């Protein structure tokens, strides 16, 4: 069974649905119309360009080119996270880049080699989409967690110094803030995972079914993707926090100025 194509005219008809939220933004006086329009145009242009690029990426199917694309994704994710968290690049760029890249490679290859048992794990058909799925999930979790972690340290720095003053190690003193960051960033992930298949049908599974895969196969892939994205998000966050620690505190354990002024 082949996937039904969508004509450009039909796509234009579908995009007309974007007028519905814009209408209510206008009625409610929400200042989101311009940003929605810009985001919609960017989404359309970027997806068309990436579709064109992926066409040639799949034709070339070069491990070096595929890995270079992953490096670009990690770099973009790093700067995106730094911008959303307003953390200084010298504080978070290298730890975040390293955490995202190492986790994506380790968890991605674990899935491709040990679970799918592919002879060629760098095959563009599998390698690029899996890395993209991992990167998107890791980015969203890291942004929420890093914001929560550093906001907590800055807002409740007295607690941090109180713990240090009462004999706690540096690791013990930052643990309450790390725990809060993990709870806040992973609570939505756990809630979504708990209702998969009942309340919500995930896009990956629906996409596979629409693409002609048997429902049973699509469900297996969705289970595995949920597991690897959840695990990768945690591992990348822990690596990022660990690597950012020496850049966030001085030799005396005092929190540095990690936020940008803008």
TrEMBL record:
Q: Which UniProt keywords apply?
A: Membrane, Transmembrane, Transmembrane helix
Give the membrane topology, semicolon-separated if more than one.
Answer: Multi-pass membrane protein
Spans traversing the lipid bilayer:
6-25, 37-58, 64-82, 94-114, 126-147, 190-211, 223-244
Recorded GO cellular component terms are: plasma membrane
- Where can this protein be found? Membrane
User: Does Transmembrane show up as a keyword for this record?
Assistant: yes
One Pfam family matching this protein: UPF0014
InterPro entries named in the record: UPF0014_fam
Task: Give the protein family.
Answer: Belongs to the UPF0014 family.
Protein name per the record? ABC transporter permease
